[in-house]
Amino acid sequence: MNHLLKDHIETISPLSDEEFAYILSHFVFKKIKKHAFLVQEGDPVKYEYFVLKGCLKAYVADNATGKEFIFQFAAEDWWITDREAFFKRSTATVNIDCLEDCEVLALTLENREKLGVEMWKYEHFLSVKAYWGYISLQKRLQMMIMGSAKDRYENFIAQYPNLFNRIPKSFIASYLGVSRETLSRLYKS
Amino acid sequence: MNHLLKDHIETISPLSDEEFAYILSHFVFKKIKKHAFLVQEGDPVKYEYFVLKGCLKAYVADNATGKEFIFQFAAEDWWITDREAFFKRSTATVNIDCLEDCEVLALTLENREKLGVEMWKYEHFLSVKAYWGYISLQKRLQMMIMGSAKDRYENFIAQYPNLFNRIPKSFIASYLGVSRETLSRLYKS
């Protein structure tokens, strides 16, 4: 299933089999059960994860109100971690848990930086990927502030095609900032 | 004033004077008058801009309601453009105009990519900068969805120290998604 990672990097930087094998040797394969935490608030964040199989949600818990704000989903072909804590070597301020049994490839910050220094192609991949991520997040921010519930729903479908039926609707509603009833109306229409 | 750009890149990638001179030779210096547009909806976006002097706002206009959503300010030491249009060589979907007389350094996508290919240090700078940008945007998204008006205000002060007195309060209120009255209460307290 590692070809998923190769295909993913190659959308930006084409690789020989040797180059990919070298990159892959820096990752650790992990299996995580449904409901288990990949990242837990307060813990150190040692890895950035590339999802090979399964589906996860990342959220911030508001301890005062008990409310959860889901800010990202990830499934096959996506990266997920607490980026700030990972990058600053601090402890997590978010939680990431598994909505299904998951398989991921985990990369430490040391290995991420090592790969970037050793291979321009990898640094370029990181650079373009982060830029795309910024653009898509900016679109989401605009949606949350200016968009109607319908705009947000349509943006979700565009951002996460094929995920709609895998994720409990209450989580999708939380991600979109709409009520469960509004969401039902939207996907029936 | 070009030392601003050198200092900025050097927060990530230290440069010799020769390296910086080479980088700088790829930028074009531009002056833009207060109220003029740097980027206008519907136009091609040829440049990414590094601000040497002045202050700008980037916003999306909702043509149906006439409302404006300000999603970014930029002043000395910040980058600004319509990132999606710049990167995809498409036309702008946002507007960026000058709140003061401005001086910027403009870089085309061709030169940005050329510098990245020729100098690993520049590609690394782009990569880290985009990652930081993603993290700060994610924080803003959380603020807009979960944060109180006070949280948003405090986040603004942290993100744009020294800008509060340079930007008309009605624009700051738009950026924060709060009323002008709420903003007044916050900064008096």
Q: What can you tell me about this protein's structure?
A:
By secondary structure, chain A is an alpha+beta fold. Chain A has a domain of 116 residues: Jelly Rolls. In chain A, 46% of the residues lie in helices and 22% in strands. Chain A is built from eight helices and eight strands. In chain A, the strands form two sheets. Chain A has a four-stranded antiparallel β-sheet with strand order 1-8-3-6. A four-stranded antiparallel β-sheet of chain A has the order 2-7-4-5. In chain A, helix 4 crosses helix 5 and helix 7 crosses helix 8. Chain A is globular and about 50 Å long. Chain A starts with a helix and ends with a helix. The model of chain A has no long low-confidence stretch (mean pLDDT 92). Chains A, B: InterPro entries: cNMP-bd_dom, cNMP-bd_dom_sf, RmlC-like_jellyroll. Chains A, B: Pfam families: cNMP_binding. Chains A, B: This is CRP-like cAMP-binding protein. Chains A, B: It comes from Mucilaginibacter frigoritolerans.
Structural class of chain A: alpha+beta
How far is the first residue's CA from the last residue's CA of chain A? Answer: 37 Å
Radius of gyration of chain A: 17 Å
* CATH fold topology of the domain at 3-118 in chain A: Jelly Rolls
Largest sheet of chain A: 4 strands, antiparallel
Can you tell me the residue ranges of chain A where pLDDT is under 50 for at least 5 consecutive residues? none
Oligomer: homodimer
